[in-house]
Amino acid sequence: MVTPVPRQTYDAIVIGTGAGGGMAIKTLCEAGLKVCALNSGRRLDPEKDFRNHRMPWELKYRGFGDPKLHSRSGADFVGDTEYVEGAWETGAGCTTAPGTKWITARCSAVGGRTNFWGRSATRFGDIDFRAASLDGHDVDWPVTYEEMAPYYTRVEKMIGVASTVQSRPSNPDGVYLPPMNFRCFDHILQKGAEKVGIPYLPDRIAQLTVAHEGHPPCHFCGDCTSGCEVGAFFSTPFFLLPSAEASGNLELRTNAIARKILVNENGQAAGVAYIDRTTRQEHEVYGRAVVVAASCIETARIMLNSTSRHWPTGIANSSGQLGRNLCDHVYGISVAGYLPQLLGQPSFPDNVSDSSIAWMPRWQNLRDPHEEQFIRGYSLYPDGGCWEFPEYYDNIEGFGSSFKREMKRRYPTPVSIMTQIPTLRSDKNYVDINPVAKDSFGIPLPRIHFQWGDNEMKMWEHARKTSADLLHAAGGVFEYAAETPENPGYSQHETGTCRMGNDPRKFVTNRFGQTHDVANLYVCDASVFLNCTDKPTTLSILAFALRTSEYLIEQVRRAGG
Amino acid sequence: MGGQGIERREILRILATAAGVAQFPGFCKWSFACGHLGNATAQIRPAVYRPLFFGAPEYAAIDCLSDIIIPHDTTPGAREAGVAEFIDLMVSRDPDLQRDFRGGLTWLEGHSRAVHSKPFLKLTAEQQIALLEPLAYKAKFRKGDAQGQEFFNLLREYTVMGFYTSEIGLKQLDFPGFKFYAESPACPHVDDPEHLHLPPPQW
User: Fold this and answer.
1) Hey, is A233 helix, strand or coil?
2) Which residues of B touch A55 (CB under 8 A)?
């Protein structure tokens, strides 16, 4: 007679190892919970996989990529490059409804997009959480800044954020390492910004200007978005997973593609069914709680695909709001040109401009929420200086020695400004499941429905005009402004799909990220955000995930677990 | 992993490892020097390059044209930087590029014969430049040269791509990314934020 092997049940299963999943894993493991984490891709070996210190001529296609794989009009391209291979799945995990142009780039590697993120890390404030009370659109967040502030402080201390105290009404200050230094063009643009009445300040950037909590300081090589092999900026593998692994409480299963959340006879979460990418075999893993942190679209996909007798339209979807309310940032070049003041000057090591050293934080609608033609507000990010590749060549006519000399003269001068404009929540923007298309593992694919709305397009026009004015005031020469922004999805800052709120009829999760319908199912990523605000998402994902994880631990302890 | 107490020398050790894996086995036409920061060696090129895509006359034309676009003057130009080899590699991987480059070269050859009754490569340097100027400058553009203009733009794009990603090209720009820094580099003109009193331009 064969004795059945007792089935192992973990305290928690965490789907995803990005910012939210990583924070959940660390927090739960350190509290003594036995955690099984599922990640859809492989582990990266920073020493081998990150080629950010390679010079372009050391790469076969000089960093442009194999033309056979990358189209020439690769402006939309976010994903694997010659500097990092086998980390991203571009386009593969997503479909779009007719008329929707959405760029999908899933980073399947352990740590997800934290391996390559932009590192801009600013807090949301009450101006965001209470935006609906101020301008009447949508609803307030079910949290206050006062409640979130301690979590932000703990996260900033954990990951290290370089900035200054700025006392801006739109941007609560935090706990900061010394800021990055301004470059030549920053000072010039700052003067221009002063003249047109726009704040131009050091950004909040999760990049270690000094050694921090055992992590080495940045060496300013200037290619952070290809990954940092010494971990001098926050990423899950360098900052969150080591202590979880040291606790002995983590089992991390890689190449494990979550297909469905399993439920017990009461409709509560019982585990996760996943497919092993390498063997294509399906496995099941069981847990007393499930934390979904697969990033906004993938989280919605997994939950919508988790249908059962109890949850015919997807798990925890009694509100019908699962997948709804997708928001994103409008990214685009609002102005580009050059600063003639710097023509012919020696090159300056501002290749660290891979970092957003400066920003122009929201200055609109601060005194009165309706002082502009649009509601809410946006931020701008300047860029420029001596880049690795002289993109400005297209603005110089001709050829020969005169062309070569002009290329040299112009090298320190280019500047550009990029927008970060939030969309408002809209019924038109959502994720559902494509009724026919499946991925190569047979899992139904998500389908994105998304259009920019009027409010954000008004901001886009406002940003274009303001940016041109700023460049002019700074003595710069205008060369280009994008007519239309990048396609949606480009910013990688999608939010929504499992919004949090107190009313179970209108929101997927409660104010702690616990689903209203399924008490042992939690969401730990930007899916729970009510909208994307004018700020980047990662710092807030970490703060909300920390809070949700501690709430989960409290529930377990209360239940005597 | 996990960055616990990694020091400077550890960074250097990691860099050395990264340099060690920078090899492209099986690819010998273009030698991408795999030296690294500090010992970045010059690009070693075989004495005779055998094009992957272009025929010999086409390749000679590409080499000649790239050198007209970025010539050797007081500093090395596209030929020394091996730009034609880069273009050949890129074109060999993309049917659209193959069509555009081959079509463009054919156009230029026909144009040269129509104007001078000679192949492009047999023209004097002055004649070559005079033939290209209407394609390169909007003010000199002549109706009917649209295909030539499009080809010249493509050729110039790939010449720039090849040249300014070579060690020779990036050194000419004085690309600052060859170094690491102990702190984030700061603007040296603190007393002149508007940068209105800088030393005279060097170039």
Assistant:
1) strand
2) 37, 40, 167, 170, 177-178
| Interface contact A60, partner B, CB < 8 A | yes
Nearest residue in B to A350, CA atom: B185
CB contact under 8 A, B1 and A231: yes
Structural domain boundaries in chain A: 9-53+89-558
Alpha-carbon span B151 to B135, nearest angstrom: 9
Summarised one tens digit per residue, pLDDT across range A238-297 is 999 999 999 999 999 999 999 999 999 999 999 999 999 999 999 999 999 999 999 999
Options 3.40.50.300, 3.90.79.10, 1.10.287.770, 3.50.50.60; which CATH number does A9-53+89-558 get? Answer: 3.50.50.60
What is the ipTM score, two decimals? 0.89
B5, A182: Cβ pair inside 8 Å?
no
Residues in chain B: 203
> A181 in contact with B at a CB cutoff of 8 Å?
yes
Nearest to B189 among A184, A357, A397 (CB): A184
Shortest Cα distance, chain B CAs vs residue A281, angstroms: 30
Q: Which long-range contacts (CB under 8 A, 24 or more apart) does A160-163 make?
A: A160/A206, A160/A207, A160/A208, A160/A212, A160/A213, A160/A215, A160/A234, A161/A121, A161/A204, A161/A205, A161/A206, A161/A539, A162/A202, A162/A204, A162/A205, A162/A206, A162/A207, A162/A208, A162/A209, A163/A202, A163/A203, A163/A204, A163/A205
Cβ separation of B165 and A409 shorter than 8 Å? no
Closest-approach residue (CA) in chain B for A51: B18
Compute the 3-state secondary structure of chain A and give helix, strand, coil in percent, each to the nearest 5.
25, 20, 55
Q: Which two tokens stand for residue A95?
A: 């479909």
Between positions 232 and 271 of A, the ones with CB within 8 A of B are: 232, 237-239, 241-242
Q: Within an 8 Å CB–CB cutoff, is residue A351 touching chain B?
A: yes
Label residues A125-164 b or e (16+ Cβ within 10 Å = b): bbbbbebeebbeebbbbbbebeebeebbeebbebbbbbbe
pLDDT in tens, B119-145: 999 999 999 999 999 999 999 999 889
- Mean pLDDT over each residue of chain A, to the nearest integer: 94
Chain B residue numbers touching A48 (CB-CB < 8 A) = 17-18, 21
Closest CA to A272 of A256, A289, A260, A264: A260
